[in-house]
Amino acid sequence: MSTPFRSGAFRLSPSDYRALTDTARQNPEAYWQTQGTRLEWVNAPSSAQDTGNGWFADGTLNASVNCLDRHLETRGDQTALIWRAEEADHVVRLTYRDLHARVCQMANVLRAHGISRGDRVAIHLPTVLEGVIGMLACARLGAIHVVLFGGFSPEAIADRLADSGTALVITANVGRRGAKRIPFKTTMDSALSLRPETLFVRSVLVVSVTDEPVPMQAGRDEMLTPLLEKAEASCPAETMASTDPLFLLYTSGSTGKPKGIVHGTGGYLTWASYTHELVFDHQPGDVFWCTADIGWITGHSYVVYGPLSNGGTILLFEGMPSHPGPGRWWEVIQSHKVTTFYTSPTAIRALMREGNELPRQYDLTSLRVLGTVGEPISQEAWSWFDDVIGGGRCAFVDTWWQTESGGIMISPVPGAVKEKPASATLPLPGVHPVLLDDKGQVLDGATEGVLCLDGSWPGRALTIWNDDTLFQTTYLRPYPGHYFTGDGARRDEDGYYWITGRVDDVINVSGHRIGSAEIEDALAAEHAIVESAAIGIPHDLKGQGIVVYAVARDPSHPELEMLAVRAITAKVGRYAAPEKVYIVPDLPKTRSGKNVRRLMRKIACGETDGLGDLSTLADPEIVDVLIRIVQG
Ligand code: WT7
């Protein structure tokens, strides 16, 4: 069933959209050159796509100038950023002029600490102003930011600091989650003390979110606020090559080691700007609220770079949807007249449980575009969001993309592409998805297969930090001639895409990517466990939950499950805690010793009818043993 077509005062009509799609297909070079002009360049690029060397390769620019300086003349007094603190009555508004000054001050502090072009700076913060400011300050100096999600464990942080060769860290004394305090600084201290011989961190700058004192290491740690206050409010911007890295962002794949995805400057920023304008129908006066943490790619592209490069107004909210009560988000939308609201299916599922009465107590009529990202959304959650929150008036964009793509790839365009509930619909102009069978043959028409992308696009990641070979083998080698996304999809008779989920061993918990191998590696380090397998199974609230099968060295050990959970949360983070740990005598394996995940998944889901041919297993009897253990 499709919803009635909503054409309001949207920027694009269906025929505009068709014209863009046609031009992008017929003359990609000219199309992307035109899109490149949405940025302000120091030296304009002579071509868009170069052979091999990335996008707009001979262009030079600075990303912070594109997000700040170039708006000063036309909209210096416009609000760039509204920061809503945890306390309901605390709001900070920064105009473009204010934000520019704050970013310059931060850049000067970083420079005084020896940071210059190419250096890596880690940002490990709750949702406070210094996060956005820190990112743009790095961009101003040509330093490469590495934003670390607040939920990472010290182990996970240490791995990323070491791999990136980070020289300076910006963190906070604590983060606030409702009444709780999250110990950012002490988590960072633990990370820094784990394997000091692998680290290059010289300075730790600490934001005071509250008055709580934290231990400071002399010679390494400093409070940031006093340094910022003394700093000069202007700072020249470095001229960067289009293909110089703007940031690294770590994400999970099918190996145990997280990959530092490298995004460039000109191509990435063009993509962030292009997709933000197109997908969210960006118009003057919009108040754009993307609820993602800046620790994820969504926060990079749609809290910071997309909306600010387009001169928009962003909202940042420090608090949680459920504190002090479950109406908090609706109150934020009402008080700041949010027009564009971009969030996750996980959040929608949680808010849906609170019923329809609560959101109806708020005036949500400022909303005109609703968006979701990160995981498949059910038709039920789609319709609830559309109807109860959007009042049936809003454009709805279910956006499919990934850390590696830099920005949105498949999504409706408001006013131009008719929605179908729970479908990501059609590729954006210039994006060319294909579906392949497992032999790598391209499938036509209405079908289902592995989702790949043909050709390149400006937002595509440049490489994996320190490991270009892994970039080639992960994305370009599996289906030669196509870029492999790791997802499966169905295409219907209208050419619409319906993402079915990962086809590799990546588990998507509340929109967070976790590799099975990351969990298995964490358990391999726990002496009491000999072997394990981590599996994703459907979960009502989180989308997917993690189930672990573990073989114990001594099955009579009384605390195996607790040890397993602790090993995972210590190595990866609390967000990767499994729903269930089953201690089993063995794992189902083929005769060549390969774990049969398909069977473990079916057993964990209770789908024990039709387990298929078990004769290829080394020990078919293990299947009944597992079923008995799981069914308890
Ligand atoms: C994976 C990428 C994209 C920014 C946030 C996550 C899944 C993403 C959708 C969607 C179904 C989706 C895919 C993808 N995913 N968007 N609209 N419908 N699945 O970025 O951490 O790199 O994860 O998230 O499986 O591969 P990420």
UniProtKB/TrEMBL annotation:
Residues 17-67 form the Acetyl-coenzyme A synthetase N-terminal domain. Residues 69-456 form the AMP-dependent synthetase/ligase domain. It holds the Pfam family AMP-binding_C. Residues 518-594 form the AMP-binding enzyme C-terminal domain. The keyword Lyase does not apply. Keywords: Acetylation, ATP-binding, Ligase, Nucleotide-binding. Its EC number is 6.2.1.1. It comes from the Bacteria. The keyword Membrane does not apply. Belongs to the ATP-dependent AMP-binding enzyme family. This is Acetate--CoA ligase. The lineage of its organism: Bacteria, Pseudomonadati, Pseudomonadota, Alphaproteobacteria, Acetobacterales.
